[in-house]
Amino acid sequence: MSLVANRASIPNPRSVSGSSVIYWLYVTIKREIELSYWFMESNFDAAFVPFPIFTTASLLYRRATYAEAVLSLAYTLLYGFLFYYSTELANNAEGGTIEDKINKPNRPIVQSQTTVAAVKIRFYIASGTWLLLSYTLDVHMWSLLWVVVLISLYLLHFSRIGPAKDLCIVLGVVSQLMACWKLGGSDMHYGWRWVKLIILWIFFTVPIQDFRDVPGDLAAGRRTTPILLGDIPARIYTSLGLVSMEPWYNAVAIIYVLALSAEHGNS
Q: Per its record, what are the GO molecular function terms (predicted)?
């Protein structure tokens, strides 16, 4: 075999090293995407979907241009993803042991795909990125409110007491929706009109989500609203919240729509 052939058969160290790095990046990114999905899949509808919807309402209210709408929604989707991702990381880290083994056995920590310590590192990185983005988008006031809620829920353990947890979720909805409205660019006063209606309804109905988690919550020592009141009284409480609030909610919503339409017509 010639010298040229021998040289051709020897792999280029730079090529091998470069290929290894690319493959490592591919595997790492793929794994993070999969883990992110499993972190977030249980609460996607409640935690992420409201972002584009409420921002769109704000954009429609001020009659934004197509270009403005595309840019605002792009920022909203990024902001909403980081909000949701960091929240679910905190949630997974908090419930990563006894509770999730019973209530959510498919979560990554329970499945030994990652550890509580690794989830906390992801949380710090995601939260820091999210706060920087919120400052850039001038919605940091609402982001800081959510940070206070997270501290209350997971460091002060308000999530273990039903009424305190329900109130924290209401404050979280305020921080979420008001940021969305601001990202849409409309007057914050009008956004607050809608948010007041929504949080009033949410406070009385948010314990519904805790019925499914009663076995794990009991094992973890939590005292959510269904546990504090008992199963039947809690179902009556949330049902009354649904039944009594909905007609009033719809009536006031119609009045607001008519009032806003009149204001737009006069402007």
A: transferase activity, transferring alkyl or aryl (other than methyl) groups
Burial of 203 (0-12, 13-18, 19+ CB in 10 A): middle
User: Of 145, 107, 147, nearest to 127 (Cα)?
Assistant: 147
The encoded tokens of residue 18 equal 């470069």
Residue-wise over 164-199: b if at least 16 C-beta within 10 A, else e?
bbbbbbbbbbbbbbbbbbbbbebeeebbeebbebbb
DSSP string, 148-205: HHHIIIIIS-GGGBHHHHHHHHHHHHHHHHHHHHHHHT--HHHHHHHHHHHHHHHHHH
- Phi then psi for residue 161, to 5 deg, are -120, 120
How far is CA 10 from its chain centroid? 52
Any residues with CB less than 8 A from the CB of 141 and at least 6 apart, and which? none
Count of residues for the chain?
267
Domain coordinates in residue numbering, the chain: 20-263
**Radius of gyration of the chain from its Cα atoms, rounded to whole angstroms:** 24
**254 to each of 56, 192, 201, 263, 267, how far by Cα in Å?**
19, 16, 16, 14, 20
Task: Give, as one character, the DSSP assignment of residue 30.
Answer: H
Q: Which tokens belong to 189?
A: 């006063």
Which sign does the torsion angle of CA 42, 38, 98, 222 carry?
negative
pLDDT at 5: 44
What global pTM score does this model have?
Answer: 0.79
